Recover the amino acids of this structure.
């Protein structure tokens, strides 16, 4: 007897192949495809999926759920839109491997992205961190080693090049972290302290990532050379010289890239034709989100979060920063505060910096500095830098996959956190027909699973793990908006993670079956 029988659904298996009618049985944490007459088949629970589409669980390879998934284990923002697996450690920052002192500093420094929830921060290694997720959250996680963790443990928080000895120490940390379950290396080359890494340093680190069978995932340097394509060229050069597969994060970001979608895809095609193993991701929204202190000039970050706070409090340092910061702020356009730490400043959420400054009768730069000081850096914002026509072009490329890049903090987050995958299925596939349903599902499932080495996920085939989403193709939709960003989506009827029902008839069951996922078959420095 099976545990669950999903009957009569339109099965889209994740490969990109055309869908078909069939039944799926779940036994333990695995699935089986059943064909022919299944009336004699017995199961403890049966679901009539005759009006639904049945697909593999979605894999979001760019998230910022590194801490919130532990403090909010139901994970409704993601699981209710069908995301069964989230990649952690993106943009070069995360929380393992780190010593206690550097963990405390990293938590403070990136609280404007990940928050600083009340948790028992008693881990240091990748293995210890990943164990915290086992059966303590609704969805699965996978992990990339952030280069900021490597740098703080070897070089420190200073803006200087790493020595050969320090690079060797970072390589040893990569080997250890990947042996403990990480699937690759990430960089955020707009964010300290990872930004201080040279191209040569990253090439050497990526040589070790290749040795361990992993991938290099990069938020590129947007201030390099021409400020547009030279950061992408650096990523390709790192892949070329190290032999490492390269994945570029949120490839449609930035005002400087508006109306350049065709050129961006030409760049991808030319790099792949030259032999570089290159893929990329993008979210289907015009607005990007990040920590407010990213608008503070780079030199003010030197030395870490405590030094940054000292400079933000200093009248002389503020004056020194003002003109440089003004150029950065102007380049962002309208800046909307999405998250603060304290109740005292909750009124700021959803307002522009202009509106906040006017209400406080302060100059804009002083309003930003004061808010960062009062909130101890735990401030996030979003700004409209993208263009949906560009995004719709970019997402048709076969080397593209979907992401949310969603921040999980604050009262007014970018709605991509709550509604990205239903928006794709409803608006972009069903209504606008930008992609076929089979193409879109592949970009959410088998493609990211294959790219990141999650060998038993992303496809509905016999023996695969039972991460399954069942949705109504007529009603599925994103209803989250910038004015009301935390509304849960419509049409996601059932979600299974590791064979356990997490969403039933559109409601969370309270089940926590999540697992930390690793590259299958990799043990130490040998494939088995």
């Amino acid at each position: 007897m099976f545990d669950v029988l999903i009957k009569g659904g339109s099965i889209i298996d994740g490969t990109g192949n055309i869908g078909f009618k069939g039944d799926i049985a779940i036994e333990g944490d695995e699935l089986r495809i059943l064909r022919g007459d299944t009336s004699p088949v017995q199961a403890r629970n049966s679901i009539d999926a005759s009006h639904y589409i049945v697909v593999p669980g979605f894999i979001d390879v760019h998230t910022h759920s590194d801490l919130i998934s532990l403090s909010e284990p139901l994970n409704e923002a993601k699981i209710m839109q069908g995301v069964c697996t989230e990649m952690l450690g993106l943009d070069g920052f995360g929380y393992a491997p780190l010593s206690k002192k550097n963990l405390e500093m990293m938590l403070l420094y990136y609280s404007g992205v990940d928050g600083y929830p009340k948790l028992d921060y008693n881990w240091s290694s990748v293995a210890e961190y990943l164990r915290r997720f086992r059966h303590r959250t609704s969805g699965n996680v996978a992990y990339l080693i952030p280069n900021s963790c490597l740098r703080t443990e070897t070089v420190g928080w200073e803006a200087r090049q790493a020595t050969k000895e320090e690079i060797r120490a970072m390589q040893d940390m990569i080997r250890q972290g990947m042996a403990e379950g990480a699937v690759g290396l990430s960089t955020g080359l707009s964010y300290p302290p990872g930004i201080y890494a040279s191209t040569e340093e990253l090439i050497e680190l990526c040589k070790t990532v290749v040795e361990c069978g992993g991938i290099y995932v990069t938020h590129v340097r947007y201030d390099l050379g021409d400020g547009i394509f030279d950061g992408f060229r650096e990523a390709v050069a790192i892949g070329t010289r190290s032999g490492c597969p390269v994945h570029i994060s949120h490839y449609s970001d930035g005002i400087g890239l508006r109306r350049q979608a065709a050129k961006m895809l030409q760049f991808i095609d030319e790099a792949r034709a030259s032999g570089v193993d290159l893929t990329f991701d993008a979210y289907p929204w015009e607005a990007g989100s990040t920590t407010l202190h990213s608008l503070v000039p780079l030199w003010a970050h030197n030395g870490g979060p405590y030094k940054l706070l000292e400079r933000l409090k200093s009248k002389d340092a503020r004056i020194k920063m003002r003109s440089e910061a003004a150029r950065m702020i102007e380049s962002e356009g309208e800046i909307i505060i999405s998250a603060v730490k304290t109740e005292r400043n909750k009124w700021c959420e959803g307002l522009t910096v202009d509106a906040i400054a006017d209400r406080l009768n302060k100059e804009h730069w002083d309003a930003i500095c004061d808010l960062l000081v009062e909130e101890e850096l735990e401030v996030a914002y979003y700004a409209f830098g993208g263009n949906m026509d560009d995004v719709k072009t970019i997402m048709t490329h076969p080397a593209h996959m979907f992401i949310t890049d969603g921040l999980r903090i604050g009262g007014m987050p970018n709605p991509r956190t709550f509604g990205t995958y239903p928006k794709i299925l409803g608006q972009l596939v069903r209504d606008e027909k930008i992609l076929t349903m089979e193409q879109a599902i592949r970009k959410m499932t088998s493609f990211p699973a294959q790219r990141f080495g999650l060998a038993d996920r992303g496809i509905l085939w016999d023996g695969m793990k039972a991460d399954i989403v069942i949705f109504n193709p007529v009603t599925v939709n994103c209803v989250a908006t910038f004015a009301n960003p935390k509304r849960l989506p419509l049409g996601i009827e059932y979600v299974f993670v590791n064979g356990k029902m997490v969403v039933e008839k559109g409601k969370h069951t309270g089940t926590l079956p999540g697992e930390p996922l690793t590259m299958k078959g990799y043990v130490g420095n040998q494939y088995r």
About this structure: The longest helix spans residues 315-332.
